[in-house]
Design brief:
This protein is of the alpha+beta class and about 140 residues long. It has one domain: Alpha-Beta Plaits (2-Layer Sandwich), CATH 3.30.70.100. It contains 5 helices and 5 strands. Strands 1-2-3-5-4 form a 5-stranded antiparallel β-sheet.
Length: about 140
């Protein structure tokens, strides 16, 4: 069996990297009573991703994305993997998928009301405020 030569290191967005693939894990608090509206917004986001032109997905570099509600619909995990560093990933996602698509679901999280929704930098800071580096991260098939 050959040895894996991919090192796990931190990238510039608090996430962990394995080879060229980075992970993002963000833990957000859901506004009371808004879990159902959040789920509906997340379905819209994921539908938009599934229907996006392949060129957009390739440019963003996204491998996967998942959103998980937990603790009786009070908390949300946003977990995703992508081929680039943090800044190009989130910049491309906001530009190609649209700030409105992110605002649609993020508006149901605590703290979103204080964010300048027209500023990509403000949105990035908001996500990073909820982001936690993975303790360990393994990409089974690094690209």
């Amino acid at each position: 069996m050959s040895q894996n030569t991919y090192a796990t290191t931190l990238d510039n967005g608090k996430g962990v990297r394995h080879g060229v693939v980075s992970e993002l894990s963000a833990f957000l608090t859901i506004k009371p009573g808004e879990a159902d509206a959040l789920r509906e917004a997340l379905v819209r986001l994921h539908d938009r991703l599934r229907k996006a032109p392949w060129e957009y997905i390739r440019k963003i570099g996204v491998h996967d994305m998942r959103h998980v509600t937990y603790e009786n619909d009070t908390r949300l995990l946003w977990a995703t993997e992508f081929d680039t560093d943090w800044d190009p990933y989130i910049d491309d996602a906001l530009a190609l998928i649209g700030v409105d698509s992110f605002a649609d679901w993020l508006q149901h999280t605590v703290g979103w009301d204080a964010v300048d929704h027209s500023s990509s930098e403000a949105i990035k800071r908001y996500v990073q405020s909820a982001q936690v580096s993975a303790t360990c991260y393994y990409q089974a098939v690094p690209t």
